[in-house]
Amino acid sequence: MGFGLQFNLESKVWSPTFTMNPFTIRSVTHADVPTLFSLIQALADYEKLSDAVTGSPDQLEEHLFGDRPYIEAIAADHAGQVVGFALFFYSYSTFLTKPGIYLEDLFVLPDYRGQRIGKALLTYLAQLAVDRGCGRLEWSVLDWNEPAIGFYKRMGATVLPDWQTCRVTGDALTAMAQQSQNN
Fold it and tell me: Could you report the per-residue pLDDT of 71-109, keeping only the tens digit for each?
């Protein structure tokens, strides 16, 4: 197991890597976008939400590498194949008055589970949060996903029972945005 740096020719920056034989955790590159998008589709399939994937690899690439990146992602690489990923972005805690990292998705292909890849992805993100001066690392988990809940608890996470996720999308988002105009 070891940490190192790799030079990304596309972005011309050094990125941290985390190597734990036989896989490496690294920042995604432009070349990873099609594979990353297919892993997002596999995650949606696992969560029985395949119909919720409405985006495209082009949109994903723009949000990762465009003029205004909204997200970051790391990949678990095994023998040149991406077998898992974590996609994340900054959040902010007003109570801590510190930024945080919000983990949107973490996924490892079924054939590679049980090999500590998920643990390595979370560990990498925790180290990134500490290095960036963040006050916390947080994410959501579906209440029926007992294997994930157990894994996260073993990693030291607290599953917050008193919080519910609120979400507004599609037509409801448009309607909410227009409420002040109609009053």
Answer: 999 999 998 899 999 999 999 999 999 999 999 999 999
Cα gap 72→85, rounded to integer Å: 11
Question: CA-CA distance, 161 to 158, in Å (whole number)?
Answer: 9
pLDDT > 50? residue 14: no
Omega before 16 cis (within 30°)? no
Please state, in angstroms and rounded to a whole number, the distance separating the CA atoms of residues 118 and 114. Answer: 8
| Secondary structure, 3-state, the chain | CEEEEEEECCCCEEEEEEEECCEEEEECCHHHHHHHHHHHHHHHHHCCCHHHCCCCHHHHHHHHHCCCCCCEEEEEEECCEEEEEEEEEEEEECCCCEEEEEEEEEEECHHHCCCCHHHHHHHHHHHHHHHCCCCEEEECCCCCCHHHHHHHHHCCCCCCCCCCCCCCCHHHHHHHHHHHHHC
Please name each of the domains of the chain with its CATH number. 2-139 (3.40.630.30)
Just list the catalytic residues. Answer: 152
